[in-house]
Every structure is written in structure tokens, then in C-alpha cells.
Amino acid sequence: MFPPISLEILVLALGFILLLAESFSNSTNKRGLAHIAIFCLGWIFAISFFTASAPATLAPGSYWNFYSGDGVSLVFKRIALLTTIAVLVLALDYESTLAKLLPSAHKGAGTGEFYILPLFTCTGLMLMASAVDLVMAFAALELVTISFYVLVAYARRSHASLEAGVKYLILGALSTGFIVYGITWIFGLTGETHFTKVAEKLAHLRGDDTAILFAFLLVLVGLGFKVAAVPFQSWVPDVYEGAPTPVTAFLSVGSKAASFLLFLRVLEPFLGVESILPKVLQVLAIVAGATLIFGNLAALPQNSLKRLLAYSSIGHAGYLLTAIACIGAGGSLLLGVGTTVGYYLFAYMLMTLLAFAVLTLVSVNSKGEEIQHFNGLSKRSPFLAFAMVVAMSSLAGVPLTAGFYGKFLVFAQIIQAHQWGLLALGVITVGAGFYYYFRVVAAMYWHDPLETTPITVAPLSKITISLLIASIFYFGINPNPVLSALRTSAPSVAAAAH
Amino acid sequence: MLTTLLLIPIVTAAALFLGFGNRTWAKGSALLQLALTLALWFRYNQAKAGYQFVFETNPLFPGVDLRYSVGVDGLSLVMLLLTALVTVTAVWFLPNLEKRANLFDGSVLLISAGATGAFLAKDLFFFYAFHELALVPTFLLIGLWGTGERQAAAWKITIYLGVGSIVLLAGLVDLLMALPVSSRTFDLQALQQLGAAHMIPAAAQIRPWFLLTIGFGILISLFPFHSWAAPAYASAPTPVAMLHSGVLKKFGLYGMVRLVLPFLPDAFHQPVWGSYTAQDLLLVALLGNILYVGLVTISQRKLDFMIGYSSVMHMGYIFLGLASLNLAGLSGACLLMFAHGLSVAALFAVSGTIRDHEGSLRFDRLGGASKSVPFLGICFAMAAFASIGLPGFANFASETMVFFGGFSPGATSFQKTATILALWGVVISAVYMLRAYKAVFLGQPTATSAKWTDLAGSARFALALLPLTLLLGGVFPRYFLGYLKPTLEAALR
After folding, report:
1. Segments forming the whole domain that contains residue B295
2. Do A334 and B64 touch (CB under 8 A)?
3. How many domains does chain B have?
4. Does residue B279 carry a pLDDT above 60?
5. Which residue of A has its CA nearest to B175?
6. Which of A331, A397, A480 comes nearest B60 by C-beta?
7. Angle between helices B124-133 and B150-178 in degrees, nearest 10
8. How far is A182 from A186, CA to CA, in rounded Å?
9. In chain B, which residues have their Cβ closer than 8 Å to the Cβ of A396?
10. Cβ A399–B133 below 8 Å, yes or no?
11. What pLDDT, on the 0 to 100 scale, is given for residue B294?
12. Is A434 within 8 Å of B59 when comparing Cβ atoms?
């Protein structure tokens, strides 16, 4: 059995080796790098099943007390690895478009780092999943964010990409400031940075409610940017639209999953403070409701599929926040909030990656990312059209797809917590979701294509897409593997979930 | 055995999507489905009642009794028989398409699979899931191959049913929450026993009752949630209209019988608005179906819209039977679910064929068709008379029981008044059905209708299947009621 940290070390080492290899290779064809990375990540994913779960200990002299290799973090590490693999596959499909947007003398030059930077992001995501110390969490978050600054603005000759890069940089830096300030407040209040110790100290602080609430709000604002919660969502549509499509997929899946886990872990100490608990839950419920309604309603009139997916990503953040806002209810019908959020993110990963995989292929072959470019896709490529139907049905929450169990669990949480306002919003937004997701289905099947050239799908992409479809159906019928993995050993998140 | 029944249409549909096979496969699949359903029908042991042919897997959720499990009792068998019969007829009325015929045929089979899965599921989750699975193919088919305002109709049905389903989901979860923690389960059989034990206090029944009744109500097109139904059925391609109005819509009623009646019987008598009880509210809504939608039906100028609205109207009778809360009314309601499914499917089959001939279904453009297409005329007449409630057809037997249920000794005065008003619905049905028959089949043949060609060969058998089963049900209602009775008695206990 390997220790959990070996996964991060392996990915990091892979990244450095490939960077070296890239700078010394003469070849202008960098595709080999991506293939090596995908192959190695596949092995690392396999290794993740042979790692012993090792929760952080607070024993004196224990060096690793800032790093928790518990079962939940392992699930999120696997999510990060799978996402990175899929993103690299997408990046290969996207190469021809990317090459045009780079100021390079010959085709293919300068694309190397595009395949290697995601490895560093992946390391950051995996460390974030394991962080149980504020400093560690912050360092991991910055590793993710900084590699994204580069990736978002990678297509240097595209104005949209540069604009997205600047927006992401400025707002990302701002949110980082909030998080650091929040961490400072927490440290100032408790003198600790480890989550468990912070929780202990906070629970025994008396008379400092305002200070605790302020610290909570600062962290909420900072992480609200990362998970795209309203009112901190304004960067999402522009950045998603401008960034190269594989990067958008990475942002909306990897970054969101790790940020949500971190959010749950940071939230936990505050939930232990009984005097401010009602206020914390109220703030969460308001943010959740606003995110739910804004994301889903703003998605309705979108004509660009990338923007639509951006708003839908906000909408899904709304469902996740809604589940978190219901954290206060005692007893559990099905499963705790932590498991709900974990499963939802897993399902969200599958369906969002599938949607982006199809989007990448269609945009490369159609010179556009509008919904109208999907017109008649069922004639150009029945396979891709079917894949998109599966992705959209799952995002909309049609049963027997992975996405449905996620919604089911969230609604169970809402009803359990008697949050009737959120339930009403949930019903409205699911209805809205049916409309905007099925618009894509309607375009693919009802309308005639703008171009008639058939789309060819590379074997590697075909395998990836088929696997994603199969997983969506499999986990839509039997979610047990993921749920058990999330439930078995979840010391910190399960504690937040009761 | 039951899983095989479910897999037949799914596997055939998958093969068709992948480009294998042709229309013969779809027909074969439907016949196989019917044969297997009949085998179940005759092998079902009536003496033992309860769920039989049960198959279940391990729990799919850690620590939660939710599993893939299938099983049939008398009520689900009747619904499965309805599904299989309508599927056979629907498959024979698939349109001739030049392109992408496999996509059409496969999607139709998927709708049938969704209904089959919902009726044979023994687990609450899969019961819900299979029904909603049919939403996607319905959306595709109506939008792609429908007529008239097809895309608007497709949107309307999808969003209405999507929202209805989510309200229903909330209701289901709320119902489970109302049970004590230790007895929460998704198993319908276990739930049936829990229902008999009256575990939910009367005051706590109201909220789940409303959520479930509105959720199911939207799916069944209960007044005032009915506006999606008629346009969708009018625009839908013939097989889709047949399967949806005939079979899939019965899912909601089936759910009312399975869940609302056994678990929340006291909610019916709870006052919700002044001294009016929830039952009174339901009665007002169903009178909306029978009288208001009935009048709307009379004023229709096109055959497909008329049949669509008539199907909405007849949901009122079924609800009347449910609201009576006694065995007579409930048996009538369940038999009427079966009978209505067959008659409305037959009507849509005939109207679809006429639309293929004529291109329009406006009454003022049609006439005298019984000369050129006597077989269609006879089938239409039988289905229309059945729909009105003429003695000899299953609809008559069941409507009679529904009305008896409304006048049972325990009925409130409001209920009796509602039943008397509902009786007028029969007159309304007679008016629009007979007028439709006259407008289409009697009178002087129009220039085009004289050239129509009648159904030939196997299509005749496929269509005749429906009215003949209706006759069988009308002459021997007791035979079908024997299957229904144990389930319904358990539901009312």
C-alpha cells in the first residue's frame, strides 16, 4: 500500500520530467507529451486504489498534521486525476484551433506547456482535497489558481482569451486577498491554523460573535469566488467563454470540486459555534437561493453553448450550496450533506466533461461554439449527438443518469431541513434547466445543419466519450461504489454531515 | 422474467439506434412483449395475490433500502397488459419514413419501455425513474415528426412534465420523511404493509398529500394542470399520442392508487380551506376536468384536438373513482384506466391514419369516409361508443362502478352532488363523440375521402385488438376485477 501523498508526488514529478523533456525536444509535434501524460496519469489513477487511507493525526511531533489522506480526499483526488486525463484528451482535439491562436513560427510550436500545466493544476487540486490546515489549503489553492492564470490566457492571439485571463487574474487576486484576510482573522481569534484545533478554540470563544462572523464572511467571499456563488459569479461567463475550451472544462469541474471540499472543511469549525449557527445558516441559505435562481434563469437566453454551460455551472453550484445550507438539520433520511456534495460533484464531473468533450469536437469542426453550430448534429455525427443527449439529460436531472441521484440527494436534504423556500426555488430552477438543456437536444435533432461535413472523432476521444457515457448510465443506476467510498472513512466531512 | 420483459424493448431500441435491424424488429419486439405479458398474466397465481415473480438486487445506497427490484401484482399486471396491447398497435401504426426511421422506431420502443419499467418496478425509486425516462424520446419525437405547432407542443409537454416530476419527487421524499426513521424504505411491498398500519398521523398527511396530488396531477393532466395535454397529443406522431395518452399518463393514476390512497387516506378528510376538505378540493378539480374540459372538447373543430381533450376529460372520472375511497369506486377507476387507455389509443390510431390520407383533420373538410374505409369506421365507432360509456364495453362497466362509488353510504353530500354533476359528463361525451363520428364518417363523401384506402392485412388485426379487448372487458369485467381486487383491498385497508 502506498501513502496518499505519493499520488501528488508522482504527478508533480511527471510534470517536471515532461517540462524538461519538452524544452530539450526538437520536435514541433508535442502531441506525444500529452499521450505520455495521459498514460502516466492513468497509472497514477490505478495506484490511487492501492493507497492506504491515512487521516491526519494531531500527535505531537507529527509532521504531516496539515495533510489528511482520508477516504473523502482520496475520492476527490481521483476526481482530479480523471478530470485531468479528460482535459488532456480534449486538449489534443483542440490542438488545431489552439495552434492558430499562438504567435509561433510553425504549427505546433508552443503547445507543449498546454499539455503540461494541467499536471501542476492537478497536483494543486489533489493537495487542496487533503488540506486540513489553513496555510496548506491556501498554498494548494494558489498553485491551482496561478496555473489557471496561465492556462486561461494561453491562446495569446485571441482577444477573448486575453480578456478572460485579465479578468480571472484580477478577480482571482481579489478573492485571494479575502481568503488571506479571513485566515488572518481566524488565526487572530484562535492562534491556530489547523481545522480541528480552530474548531476547538472557536467553540469555546465567548463574546466574540461579531469577530467570528466577520472571519466567516471573509472566507465565504473568497471561496464564493472560487465556487462561483452569487454575488461573486460575475467573472464566470466571460472567463468560461474566453478561455480555451479544455481549460474551461477544467475550470468548471476540477476547480469547483476541490473548492467545494475545501469550503466544507473550512465551514465545519464555524458550524460548531452555536451562538452564530443560525446566522451562518441564514447567510448560506440566501447565497444558495440567489445562486440557484441566478444561474438557472440567466442560462435561459444564452446562445453560446459555452456561456450556457458557464451559467449552468453557477446553477449547479447553487444546488450544492443549497445542500450545504441544509446542514443544520438533525437526522438523516439518506446520507449526510458531505456525501451528497461529494456524489453531486462526481456526477457533475462526468456529465460536464462529456458536454465539453462534444463541444470541443464540434467547435473545432464548425468554427463556432454557439448552439446553432449544434444544429443537425445528429446527421453529422449520430455518436456525438447521442453523447450530448446523455450529457444534457444528466445535467437536467433525468432519472437513470448519474445527475439524477445528485438532484435526488439534494432535494432530500432540502425537505429534511424543511427549507420550503429553497424547495420552491429548486422546483422552478429544475424546470428552467429542462428548457435550456433540452434546447441543445432540440438543435441537434430538430434543426437542419449549417454545415454538412461529417465530424470524425479520433479513437482516443471516442474511447473517452464512450467511457463517460457508460459511467453516466452505470452510476445513474448504481451509485453505491462512489457513495460507499465517500461514506466509509470521512472523519472531517462526515462530522460536518450529521 | 420481468427484467427480460423490460429488456426486450430497451435492447431492440439500442440495436435500432446503432443502425441494426428495421421495422420488423420493432414489430417483433412488441409481439414478444405481448406474448411475455400474456404468459405472466396466465401464470400469475390469483389465489396467492400480492407481488409475484419478484427479483431484487442488493441495496444500491449504503444503509438505505433502495434497490433495483421488480415484481407484479394484479394491478401492475393489468397495466402491463395495457402497455403491451397499445405497444403492439402503436408499432403497426409507425409512419413510413424515408430517413432515420430507426431513430423513430427505437424512441417509440423506449417510451413503451419506460411505461413497462414503471409498472413492474417494486421499488419506489425505479417506479419514478422509468416513467421520466420516457420524457426524452417523447420530446424528440414530437419535435421532429409531429404536425402543426409541434415544437411549441414538445416544449410544453417536456417542461410541464419535468416540473410535475420534480414536485412529485419532493412529495415522495416528504412522504418517506413522514414515516418513522426505522421504517423508511423504498420497497413498494414493504410500503404497502406500512400503509395498512396507518403510521402517519392525520395532521401530517396534508403536506405530502398536496405535493403528491399536484405532482401526479400534472402528469395526469388534472384540471387546472391540463393545458399541456391536448396540444401535445394533437401534434404528436400517431404512435406517440397512442402510447402517451393511452399508457404513460396512467402512471400518475397508478401512483395515486399505490401511494396516496394507502398512506394518506386521512388527508382526504382534513379541512384545508374553511370547512372544505382536501377531498372537496379534488372533487372541484375533477369536475373541472369533466365539465369544463368537456365543454372545451365540444367546441373543438379538429379531430385530433377533440380526442386529446376528451382524453383529458376522462381523467376526471378516474379521479372521481379514486376520491370515493371505497372498493367499488376504486375498482371502477382502475378498470377505467385500462379501458380508457385502449379506447383512446384506438381513436388516435384511426385519426392518425386519416391525417396521413388527408393531411388535415378539420371536421368541415371531412365526411362520408365510411364508404371508402369501412374498417376504420367500425373501429372508430366502437372506440367512440366505448369512450361514451355504452353498455357492452369495459368503459361502461367501470364508469358504472365509479358512479356507484360516488353514491356509497359513506359519501358526503358534496361528493354526491359532484357525482350527479359528473353524470352529465356522459351526455357531453355523447355529444362530441357522435358529432365527430358523423362529421368524419357519415354524410356525403368529400372529393378526397372517396379515394382513401382502408387498412389492410396485419394492421387490421393490430387495430382490432383494442376494441375487441374492450368488448371482452365489458362482457366479463369480473375477470379483470379478480386481478385488481386484492391490491385495491390492500390499498384501502
Report:
1. 270-493
2. yes
3. 2
4. yes
5. A415
6. A480
7. 170
8. 6
9. 162
10. yes
11. 92
12. no
Write the residue in B128, B143, B158 that is nearest to A434 by C-beta. Answer: B158
Q: What is the mean pLDDT of residues A58-74?
A: 77
Lowest mean pLDDT among A249-258, B42-51, B245-254: B42-51
Least confidently predicted of A300-304, A427-431, B270-274, B288-292: B270-274
Shortest alpha-carbon distance between residue B154 and chain A (Å): 10
Q: What mean pLDDT is predicted for residues A121-146? A: 92
CB pairs under 8 A between A and B: 97
* A484 vs B: CB within 8 A: yes
Q: Same domain, yes or no, for B180 and B145?
A: yes
Q: Please tell me which of B176-180, B355-359, B385-389 the model is most confident about, judged by mean pLDDT.
A: B385-389
In angstroms, the separation between the Cα of residue B203 and the nearest Cα of chain A is 16
Domain termination site, one of B229, B247, B266: B266
Q: Which residues contact B305 (CB under 8 A, 6 or more apart)?
A: B230, B231, B234
Residue B119 near residue B75 (C-beta atoms within 8 A): no
Q: Is the pLDDT of residue B449 over 80?
A: no
Instruction: Find the closest chain B residue to A420 by CA distance.
Output: B170
Same domain, B235 and B361: no
Amino acid at residue number A283: V
* pLDDT beyond 80 at A53: no
Grid coordinates given for B140: 424528440
**Are residues B230 and B292 both part of a single domain?**
no
In chain A, domain spans: 292-498
- Looking at the structure, do residues B260 and B275 belong to the same domain, yes or no? no
Question: How far apart are the CA of B314 and the nearest CA of chain A, in angstroms?
Answer: 27
Among B248, B266, B284, the domain-final residue is B266
